[in-house]
Amino acid sequence: MSARKVLIVDDEESIRLTLSCxxxxxxxxxxxxxxxxxxxxxxxxEDFELVFLDLRLPGIDGMEVLRQAHTLRPNTQVFVMTAYDxxxxxxxxLKLGARGFIQKPFTxxxxxxxxxxxxxxx
Length: 122
Known about the structure:
The chain has helices at residues 13-24, 36-45, 62-72, 87-95, 108-117; strands at 5-9, 29-33, 50-54, 77-82, 100-103. It is an alpha/beta fold and 122 residues long. The chain has a five-stranded parallel β-sheet with strand order 2-1-3-4-5, sandwiched between helices. β3, α3 and β4 (77-82) form a beta-alpha-beta unit. α1 (13-24) packs across α5.
C-alpha cells in the first residue's frame, strides 16, 4: 500500500520543517519545496492528496501555483497559507479552487485539525 502524499510549498524553512514533522507524525509521506516553480514541477510529476501552499513565494507566486495546480491535479486539495490575510486573497484563492485558508502563524495542532477535517463538508 502506498503512502498518502502531501506537498508543502513555503519559502520559509521553519514552516516547511514544522509542517513536515506534523504531517509525518500522521503517517503521511511529505515532500517540501521552497518556491512555486519547484511546486509545479512536482505537481506535474506526481499526484499529491494534499498541498499546503504559501501565497507569497519567490518567482512564481502562490496564486499562480494554485491556478495551475487546479488544472494539473483537479482532485488535489490545496490549503492556502499566509500571514497576509485579506478578504480579497481569501475570495481569489477559493475561486481558484483552494479547499481552505490557513492564517500564519499556526500551530502543529491547527495543521492536524485541518488535515483531519479536510473531508468534512463546508
